[in-house]
Design brief:
Number of strands: 2
Strand order of the largest sheet: 1-2
Distance between the termini: 170 Å
Number of helices: 6
Largest sheet: 2 strands, antiparallel
Order of helices and strands: HHEEHHHH
Shape: rod-shaped
Length: 181
């Protein structure tokens, strides 16, 4: 029997009025397509035209979907929150430890660097003093200041002397009507 005759025989068995009850049932059992959830009748046309059979893939997908539906809820809240709390506690302990280690490192670095900073500042101060002592500009400024101070002292002394002379001259002369001022 050739392929066309086998197709026609199978088609006749699946027909509504002329087919056998088993053939009509197979028409829906083997359906590969559905419309609004109802299986479309399969008359063997796709096999005759050698189209790919998707029924196995659909069965496998439905089987996997049923297995997934059977599995219990994978989200256990108590376990999740316990793990989250433990993770947060562990992270906070590690953070505290790291901060303590960092503080110790910083303190050790300060202990090592502060004497160097102190030595550097002392050296810089001595260098500035030496520059002041040996700098020609600073020396000339100091000499000028000293001479200005000396001149101001001499001027004050001269003013005091002339004031004393003027005061004594006033005290020698007659007072009152006798010819004083």
């Amino acid at each position: 029997m050739n392929r066309t005759q086998a197709f026609l025989k199978e088609f006749r068995e699946r027909m509504g009025l002329f087919g056998t009850p088993e053939g009509r049932q197979r028409k829906y059992d083997e359906s590969k397509k559905s419309f609004l959830g109802m299986p479309l009748p399969e008359f063997g046309v796709s096999e005759f035209l050698q189209m790919p059979d998707r029924s196995k893939a659909i069965e496998r997908q439905e089987k996997e979907k049923k297995e997934r539906e059977k599995l219990p809820d994978s989200f256990d809240q108590d376990k999740y929150f316990k793990q989250t709390r433990n993770m947060l506690l562990t992270d906070s302990i590690l953070r505290d430890y790291e901060l303590g280690r960092d503080a110790n490192r910083q303190f050790a670095m300060m202990q090592k660097t502060l004497p160097l900073v102190d030595l550097y500042s002392e050296t810089a101060a001595q260098r500035r003093l030496m520059e002041d002592r040996s700098s020609p500009t600073k020396i000339s400024q100091q000499i000028l200041r000293a001479r200005q101070g000396e001149a101001a002292l001499m001027n004050a002394l001269a003013n005091q002397t002339s004031s004393a002379a003027a005061a004594s001259a006033q005290g020698i002369g007659p007072r009152g009507r006798a010819g004083g001022r």
